[in-house]
From TrEMBL:
Protein name (Swiss-Prot/TrEMBL): Nitrate ABC transporter permease
Transmembrane intervals: 51-75, 96-115, 121-140, 161-180, 186-207, 219-237
Gene3D superfamilies, per the entry: MetI-like
Principal location listed in the UniProt entry: membrane
PANTHER family for the chain: ABC TRANSPORTER PERMEASE PROTEIN MJ0413-RELATED (PTHR30151:SF0), ALKANE SULFONATE ABC TRANSPORTER-RELATED, MEMBRANE SUBUNIT (PTHR30151)
Family membership: Belongs to the binding-protein-dependent transport system permease family.
InterPro entries: MetI-like, MetI-like_sf
Keyword Protease among record annotations: no
UniProt keywords, alphabetically: Cell membrane, Membrane, Transmembrane, Transmembrane helix, Transport
Length: 247
């Protein structure tokens, strides 16, 4: 309760500072609408079917991207973490691909996949792979050899050790990687929607609001909603981690 109260105080202080800056004569008019204006516009947008469709499109794309990234990264991490020969053979390729920003691949993705939702989902999957993959690999590095030897004494095969010993031990690390990957996927999705000319999504809504009359209040509405989605994803996955791996 004490932490919750401190959090509310921090939010209230941030909003008060934002209100003062938004109404300050030091800034150009309409460059930074105060929160009283932004939240009024947010209420109007939340009853708009068009805005809701943008939000739903972004959230669905994030969930799809995370699901695909988990399906690829967790098995790959288990293999790379448990088979040293495969890990050493692929290390150079992985270390080359990992630092490449997803947004740098937008032109290539547009040529290969076009302007549909599969482009932004593919780039979000690419960005979300690495936190999950490396957390899984590093988790197997921390696996207690005594657990593996004990399971083998009781007749557990290599695959059984992988799924009955290694995966449960790696689960806390994997869930942490998923939590990091979720916010990364959201950032990439909104960025691609902004830069690649998507036809739906929060990034498209922000781009539309910025062009034409330049409604900065609507730009900040899209930004605030994207931030709220990120907070909800992070807190939800953190609750899942605490519930599933409280030990």
């Amino acid at each position: 309760m004490r932490a919750f109260t401190r959090g509310l105080i921090g939010i209230a202080g941030f909003l008060a500072l934002w209100e003062l800056l938004g109404r300050s004569p030091l800034l150009p008019a309409d460059s930074l609408p105060p929160p009283s204006v932004v939240f009024g516009e947010l209420v109007r947008q939340l009853i708009s079917p068009d805005f809701i469709s943008h939000v739903v499109a972004t959230v669905l794309a994030v969930l799809i991207a995370i699901g695909i990234a988990i399906a690829i990264a967790v098995p790959s991490g288990l293999v790379l973490g448990s088979v040293p020969a495969v890990r050493h053979a692929t290390r150079a390729v992985i270390e080359f691909l990992r630092p490449i920003p997803s947004v740098a691949l937008i032109p290539l993705a547009l040529v290969m996949l076009g302007f549909g939702p599969e482009t932004k989902i593919t780039l979000a999957v690419y960005a979300a792979l690495w936190p999950i993959l490396f957390n899984t690999i590093y988790a197997l590095d921390e696996l207690d050899p005594l657990l593996v030897e004990t399971s083998r004494v009781f007749g557990t095969g290599r695959v059984g050790v992988l799924f009955r010993v290694a995966l449960p031990s790696a689960l806390p690390f994997v869930l942490t990687g998923i939590r990091l990957a979720a916010t990364t996927a959201l950032i990439v999705l909104v960025s691609v929607e902004l830069m690649a000319g998507a036809d739906i999504g929060l990034g498209y809504f922000i781009m539309e609001a910025r062009s034409g009359p330049g409604r900065m209040d609507q730009v900040l509405v899209g930004t605030v909603v994207a931030g709220v989605i990120g907070v909800l994803l992070n807190n939800g996955l953190e609750r899942v981690r605490r519930r599933w791996v409280a030990w």
